[in-house]
Amino acid sequence: MDIKSLVFWGIVGTAAGGGLYGAYMKFFGKAAFTSVEAMQLLNDCTILRTDTFLNYEKARPVLEKVEEKIPNIEKSDSVIAITAMFAGDKSLPSGFAASLRECVLDLQEKIKSTEESQ
């Protein structure tokens, strides 16, 4: 193998590997960050549900943030599930979107019942 071929295939290999790694980081890195945000929102929602003096004004910032972020959280859940599937994982991750929606619905019901009782 001559030096030109070696350099050429070295560049091709680096570009291909970098492209795959770059794509992986672009999609999976963003999905992982979004999952961390979703976990924090779920934590905030859960804490609010345990608040005995709950009202809409207390919950509004979390509810608005969930409404804003839920489309990205659903996309993130899909990316993580697809990545796990291609990696050969037997049990696919469920993600945060469904749990977050359930928590928000429970929180809204609790706010409604708390405000009706006052």
Structural class: mainly alpha
Radius of gyration: 22 Å
What fraction of the residues are assigned to beta strands by DSSP?
A: under 5%
Tally of contiguous helical segments: 3
- For the record, give the distance between the C-alpha atoms at the N and C termini, rounded to a whole number: 84 Å
Shape: elongated
Average pLDDT over all residues: 78
Q: Low-confidence parts, pLDDT < 50 over ≥5 residues?
A: none
Total beta-strand segments: 0
Order of H and E elements: HHH
Give the proportion of residues in helices. Answer: over 70%
Largest sheet: none
Count up the domains.
Answer: 1
Q: Can you give a write-up of this model?
A:
By secondary structure, this protein is mainly α. The chain has three helices and no strands. 84% of the residues lie in helices and 0% in strands. Helix 1 packs antiparallel against helix 2 and helix 2 runs antiparallel to helix 3. The relative contact order is 0.13.
